[in-house]
Specification:
Helices cover 38% and strands 21% of the residues. It has 432 residues and is α+β, with helices and mostly antiparallel strands. The longest helix is centred in the middle third of the chain and has 21 residues. The radius of gyration is 24 Å and the shape is globular.
Length: 432
């Protein structure tokens, strides 16, 4: 081609197939061809990923692990290794960015790409999709499904339709013929409540929706939702691929295997979670102005408590201290089933460093009233050790009330009568 092709389908949505389970099958060849389920293994665990061998038995993500065991008792059940999956994800994203800098990751296993600027050198959008799938298979022994279209929404729908290990191209002029027969729930923004309202209007497919005048949808759904869905039904989706999309938050939360009412044990969990959150802040060169604690009780009531810091931080010492203060003020009632720590109001660490005359490190001085230069040096040493020897090589410990220090091999902490948390619910990737 003599010039970049801007008319053909050039928005790609790439989705790794059964990512967590596929990584485990890659790492353990004896699991290949066998049903593999990754998720929380306790009584309250949920499935995070299921191999296609397990899906044949009706096992899918988000169903309870106990149900998955009944559906497929011969499956291999594994606890997620989120940090390792994140490392593999970074390798995938590096391959994608070798084709174009316009890569918008959505999670560890999927991303949008805009390849219009790469077509002169690398070929058409579909040809680039073929190249990327081949590289991911050859270099990482993983498979990916890709949708190629002129809009993000349609590219996403196409990748879903091509699974597993497929490629689907929606050519210009065929978009509405592909889109209109689909169930209306395939559109972004159509959840159960919206679908019920659309059913009242006689809408079951996207084509049905496209026939409804916009003012009727606005009256039924509200101005924003009505206009949004009317546009999508016509494949009008002007949203660009945003490679520099800023995460609104970085957090870590876990559902426990059994309800916890031991405040000391919960404080130790807060320390461990704060360490994970701070590490991801530094990884993304961000600092946070607000720390939030999330608690879910036995009856599923959920509360959040937040505190804004005097200065932004990326230090576990500061985040942990604030989160523990919030926990100290909270009523544990009859037990906690879920605990989470989240960093909010994120800012660029380098920019903040320039604003703080006496900042310590990248966003450190950024540490607020609890921060010290020693904290900053220690945490960045921990980062260096983890980068060289792996995420589980070292962790932050905390003293128990009797003066002892307890830590598991991951840096998790618990008392002598407690059990480690069941990682059935996690938000590892950051950005909500």
């Amino acid at each position: 081609m003599s010039e970049a092709d801007t008319s053909g389908p050039s928005i790609l949505h790439l989705d790794l197939d059964a990512f967590y389970a596929s990584v485990e099958q890659r790492e353990q060849p004896e699991l290949r061809g066998r049903p593999v389920v990754v998720g929380g293994l306790g009584a309250r665990g949920v499935v995070a990923a299921a191999s296609y061998e397990a899906r044949r038995f009706g096992v899918f993500s988000a169903i309870p692990t106990t149900r998955a065991r009944r559906l497929c008792p011969d499956a291999v059940f594994l606890t997620p290794r989120i940090d390792f999956y994140a490392e593999v994800s970074r390798e995938v994203m590096a391959i994608l960015r070798s084709a174009t800098p316009l890569v918008e990751p959505l999670s560890l296993d999927e991303a949008f790409l805009d390849v219009r600027g790469a077509t002169r050198l690398l070929g058409s959008g579909p040809e680039i999709a073929v190249m990327l799938r081949r590289r991911i298979r050859a270099e990482l022994s993983l498979t990916a499904s890709v949708g190629v279209a002129r809009t993000k929404m349609l590219a996403k729908i196409a990748s879903d339709a091509s699974k597993p290990d497929g490629l689907l191209v929606i050519e210009p002029g065929t978009e509405l013929a592909f889109l209109h027969p689909l169930p209306v729930r395939r559109l972004w923004g159509v959840g159960p409540a919206t679908q019920r309202k659309l059913t009242d209007l006689g809408v079951t497919t996207v084509g049905d929706l496209a026939k409804i005048p916009e003012h009727v949808l606005v009256d039924k759904l509200g101005a924003a939702a009505g206009a949004h869905l009317h546009a999508l039904s016509q494949n009008r989706d002007p949203r660009p691929v945003e490679p520099d999309r800023v995460a609104k938050s970085i957090g870590h939360e876990e559902t426990f295997a059994t309800d916890r009412d031991d405040r000391r044990a919960l404080e130790q969990d807060v320390v461990r979670m704060a360490d994970r959150v701070a590490g991801r802040l530094r990884e993304h060169a961000k600092v946070a102005r607000t720390v939030q604690l999330k608690l879910r009780y036995r009856d599923f009531t959920t509360i959040t408590r937040a505190r804004t810091l005097p200065e932004p931080t990326d230090l576990a010492a500061t985040i942990g201290a604030e989160a523990r203060d919030l926990l100290d003020a909270a009523d544990l009632r009859d037990g906690i089933r879920l605990l989470g720590v989240t960093a909010l109001q994120l800012e660029d660490a380098v920019a903040v460093q320039g604003q703080l005359a006496f900042g310590a490190g990248t966003g450190a001085g950024a540490g607020g009233t609890h921060a010290t230069e020693r904290d900053d040096a220690l945490e960045r040493t921990i980062d260096a050790v983890r980068a060289r020897f792996g995420a589980d090589a070292v962790g932050r410990a905390a003293h128990t009330t009797d003066g002892r220090v307890r830590t598991d091999r991951r840096g998790s902490l618990w008392g002598p009568d407690d059990e480690p948390a069941d990682p059935s619910v996690r938000s590892p990737a950051g950005g909500e």
